[in-house]
């Protein structure tokens, strides 16, 4: 019987200094939208309700597939660079963070991707293709740390290497999905392209556009486009 803990937390990295931002970050208008927040709460409740139904099966599958806990958490940078702890279902081997340096990065810029990452477990590949590994993040949305739609939440080591224009993407809350997810998923492998998409989202934002991106994401997931 696997006696591993239920939760796996990445070792905390040093948070970015509060006064070290190279640009002045102003919260985007979407952050203060009550309608967007209402959509987030509704979506989070629906997402967590569905997750509660499928979790027992997923937890058993993860436990039988590889040793380690069911959940994985990691510190990410949220709105205006504020660190928060993100939650996922574990889709990699337990020492994935330590093995990262041995894996070739096939992406350009300040993101990490490898199409055949050997750290991903068999069940983990299924979780990623269906985006089920992301469902615990509905809890982050309910808490207000994330939104249904926003920017990809960067890791602390990524933001430590940011240029001034990169910080502008953090003027919105991080999202479970966004333009990068709805329009490209894992096929987008250029960080500057992701930044451009994030800034385009900010310029075009409306609640209707959020709903459009959510529906596009659902379509991409159902068609199994991109992620693994």
Topology:
Blueprint: E1 7-9, H1 34-65, E2 71-77, E3 83-89, H2 96-99, H3 122-130, H4 137-143, E4 147-149, H5 156-159, E5 175-177, H6 179-183, H7 191-204, H8 207-222
Parallel strand pairs: 1-2, 4-5
Antiparallel strand pairs: 2-3
Helix pairs in contact: 1-4
Could you explain how this protein is built, in words?
The protein is α/β, with parallel strands linked by helices and 228 residues long. The protein has one domain (7-13, 27-222). Helix content is 40%, strand content 10%. It is built from eight helices and five strands. The chain has helices at 34-65, 96-99, 122-130, 137-143, 156-159, 179-183, 191-204, 207-222, and strands at residues 7-9, 71-77, 83-89, 147-149, 175-177. Strands 1-2-3 form a three-stranded mixed beta sheet. Helix 1 runs antiparallel to helix 4. The chain is globular. The two termini are 28 Å apart. Residues 14-19 have low confidence and may be disordered.
Write out key terms for the chains shown.
228 residues; alpha/beta; three-stranded mixed sheet; two-stranded parallel sheet; 8 helices; 5 strands
In short:
The chain is α/β, with parallel strands linked by helices and 228 residues long. The chain has helices spanning 34-65, 96-99, 122-130, 137-143, 156-159, 179-183, 191-204, 207-222, and strands at 7-9, 71-77, 83-89, 147-149, 175-177. It has one domain.
């Amino acid at each position: 019987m696997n006696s591993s803990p239920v939760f796996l937390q990445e070792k905390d990295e040093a948070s970015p200094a509060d006064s070290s931002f190279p640009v002045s970050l102003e919260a985007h208008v979407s952050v203060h939208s009550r309608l967007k927040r209402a959509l987030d709460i509704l979506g989070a409740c629906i997402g967590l309700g569905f997750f509660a139904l499928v979790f027992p099966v997923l937890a058993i599958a993860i436990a039988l597939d590889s040793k380690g806990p069911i959940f994985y958490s990691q510190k990410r940078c949220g709105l205006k660079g504020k660190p928060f702890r993100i939650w996922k279902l574990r889709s990699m081997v337990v020492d994935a963070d330590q093995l990262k340096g041995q894996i070739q990065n096939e992406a350009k810029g300040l993101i990490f991707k490898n199409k055949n990452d050997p750290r991903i477990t068999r069940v983990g590949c299924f979780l990623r293709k269906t985006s089920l590994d992301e469902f615990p993040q509905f809890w982050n949305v309910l808490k207000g740390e994330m939104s249904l739609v926003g920017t990809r939440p960067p890791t602390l080591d990524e933001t430590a290497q940011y240029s001034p224009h990169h910080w502008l993407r953090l003027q919105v809350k991080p999202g479970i999905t966004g333009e990068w997810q709805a329009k490209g998923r894992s096929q987008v492998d250029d960080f500057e392209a992701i930044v451009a998409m994030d800034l385009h989202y900010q310029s075009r934002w409306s609640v209707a556009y959020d709903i459009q991106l959510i529906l596009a994401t659902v379509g991409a997931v159902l068609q199994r486009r991109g992620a693994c």
